Every structure is written in C-alpha cells, then in structure tokens.
Amino acid sequence: EAVYLVDILKDVIDVFKLSHPDHEFILLKEDLGKVYGDKEKLTQLYMNFVSNAVKFSPNGGRIQLSVTKEENQLITKIMDEGIGIPEKDIPKLFNKFYRVDNSATRKIGGTGLGLAIAKEIIMAHEGMLVVESKIGEGSTFLIRFPVWEEELVQDNKVKNISVTDKDLVMVVE
Ligand code: ATP
Ligand code: MG
C-alpha cells in the first residue's frame, strides 16, 4: 500500500502529545508524498523514534518532526532537545539491547530494542538513516525513503506485480 508519511507523523504526535505536556510537538510538512510500505510498521518506526525523543529529554523541550522531499526521496526528521548521544555510541545504537550507559541515561529505563526494530523496518522499506547528536543539546534522526510516484505507475515506467494482496513488487525499468 502507498502511505502518506505526514499522516503517520500526525498520528504519532497525537499519541504522545496528551501525556507529555512538558514537551512541545511541532510538525513541519513541506511535502505530502507517499511511501510504499506497511502502514503499521511505519507507524511503529516513528513511534519508536518519538518515544526516545520524549524519554531522553527529561526536562521537556521541543520535539520537531518534519517531512520534506529531495529529488525522489522523502526525508523525515525527528529532532529533540534532550541529553544527546556520545559519538562513540552512535554506531552501536541500532544493535539489539544496546543502551548508552552514563549518568544521564541510568535513570531512564528501556530494553534497547526500539532502534533495532527501527533499523529492520527502515531496511525493509529500502530506507536510509543518519544520526546527528550533541551532548546536552539534543539529537536528530533523519530517515529517507524512496517516494512512491503514482505518475511513474501510469507512465508504465513502474510495473506493479501483485504477489499477494499485501505484498507488491515494484519493478522500475
Ligand atoms: P526500548 O526502546 O526498547 O524501550 P531504549 O529506548 O533504551 O529501550 P532504543 O530505543 O533501542 O532503546 O535506543 C537505544 C539507546 O540509544 C537508548 O538506550 C539511548 O541510550 C540511546 N538513544 C536513543 N534515542 C535517543 C535520543 N533521542 N536521545 C538520546 N539518546 C538516545
Ligand atoms: Mg526506545
């Protein structure tokens, strides 16, 4: 199915907004493009990032989500003003059960699975990920996915081969 990323981000913000009055949630939507994928999994993906953004900014602050388009990629970002991530830990964050261990994180709970699951979902959707962070200032997770272009399908540049109702293979020539 083709899903609007902006709709997913809106839903995820709605889930967290009410229970986190100390955070300010912002959604910047420059683009309403669609991505080809599983709506539930993509929702889970952004839930995991936003749950981290909230959890690792114990003093509140702004959590900004954005969707923009660059060429044929949809770029989503999750930015927080939280505790930040040490540079040496960044390459390991997506390993199962990996958690940063320092005085700032010790009081904050978790199992270390959220980002390992996120990585699987991103890979399954042919996405890419960039992490930027500064200790004490915050973190940004950037995820890019190929845009699902209806026009390509109509122009016969993309053939949809239905495998099952759920799985659809896209062939670009
Ligand atoms: P779980 O998601 O399973 O409840 P978790 O949140 O600890 O547990 P992950 O979501 O996989 O685990 O994140 C791994 C680690 O990466 C975290 O424990 C934390 O140290 C660090 N981390 C992730 N997101 C952020 C963030 N936005 N700011 C600071 N540190 C982060
Ligand atoms: Mg988590």
TrEMBL record:
Cellular compartment(s): Cell membrane
Lineage: superkingdom: Bacteria
Domain Histidine kinase positions: 1-149
Name of the featured protein: Response regulator
